[in-house]
């Protein structure tokens, strides 16, 4: 059932998945199943408050899941069932934003470089660690960050401020921003558009 204490618009799908996993069910990603989603339509009339609603819901769910024994004091998932991932990491090769990112990153990221990104990028960059494990101490310990805009808000403003201080963008499109650590050799990709970088900071409520 829907949790009636959860605020409007944000993270009810996260709650469904975590509760299902904690109850012993399995949750699967169906990446090729078509879904018609009219993005942000339900919250369009409250766009000025949408960021606050997302933060409020995240804070509520962290408290709730902590009481369930699912997350630790920092809000990271620790329950073994809830930390389950599908055995196949899906990389959407038919999606131009994903393939553009790979084409941009490959000439710049040297073999063996430390990269924080979604786990499916390990196929291309073996030194990849999941950026859901980033914290303020861990950010400076990597050379590159492949940031998906959809996850920037979940990492929190503290982490994103650390990224902004220690890294600079070298590529950006509608979905991703590739950050290089200050001082890492490399050149700005010609298609870097500042509007996409600014959209990332907005998605992180910065």
Q: How would you describe this protein?
A:
This protein has 206 residues and is α/β, with parallel strands linked by helices. Mean pLDDT is 75; it is low at 83-88. Strands 2-1-3-5-4 form a five-stranded mixed beta sheet, sandwiched between helices. It is globular, with a radius of gyration of 18 Å. 32% of the residues lie in helices and 11% in strands.
Short synopsis of the structure:
This protein has 206 residues and is α/β, with parallel strands linked by helices. The protein is built from 6 helices and 5 strands, in the order αααβββααββα. It has helices at 12-22, 50-67, 96-105, 149-155, 157-166, 194-203; strands at residues 115-117, 128-130, 144-148, 167-172, 176-181.
Please give the count of helices: 6
Tell me the radius of gyration.
18 Å
First and last CA, distance: 33 Å
Mean pLDDT: 75
Strand order of the largest sheet: 2-1-3-5-4
Flag low-confidence runs: 83-88
Helical percentage: 25-40%
Instruction: Please report the total strand number as a whole number.
Output: 5
Looking at the chains present, what oligomeric state does this protein adopt? single chain
Sheet with the most strands? 5 strands, mixed
User: Structural class of the helix and strand makeup?
Assistant: alpha/beta
Listing every helix as H and every strand as E from the N terminus to the C terminus, the arrangement reads HHHEEEHHEEH
Shape: globular
Beta content comes to 5-15%
């Amino acid at each position: 059932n829907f949790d009636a204490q959860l605020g409007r618009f944000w993270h009810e799908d996260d709650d469904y998945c975590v509760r299902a996993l904690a109850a012993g069910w399995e949750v699967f990603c169906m990446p090729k199943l078509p879904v018609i989603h009219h993005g942000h339509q339900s919250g369009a009339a409250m766009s000025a408050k949408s960021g606050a609603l997302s933060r409020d819901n995240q804070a509520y769910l962290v408290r709730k899941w902590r009481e369930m024994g699912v997350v630790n004091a920092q809000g990271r998932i620790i329950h073994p069932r809830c930390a389950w991932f599908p055995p196949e990491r899906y990389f959407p090769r038919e999606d131009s934003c994903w393939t553009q990112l790979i084409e941009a990153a490959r000439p710049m990221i040297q073999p063996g470089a430390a990269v924080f990104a979604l786990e499916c990028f390990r196929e291309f960059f073996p030194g990849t660690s999941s950026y859901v494990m980033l914290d303020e101490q861990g950010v400076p310990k990597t050379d590159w960050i492949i940031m998906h805009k959809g996850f920037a808000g979940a990492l929190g403003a503290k982490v994103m401020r650390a990224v902004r201080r220690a890294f600079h963008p070298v590529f950006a499109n509608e979905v991703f921003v590739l950050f290089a650590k200050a001082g890492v050799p490399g050149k700005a990709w010609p298609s870097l558009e500042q509007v996409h970088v600014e959209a990332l900071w907005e998605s992180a409520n910065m």
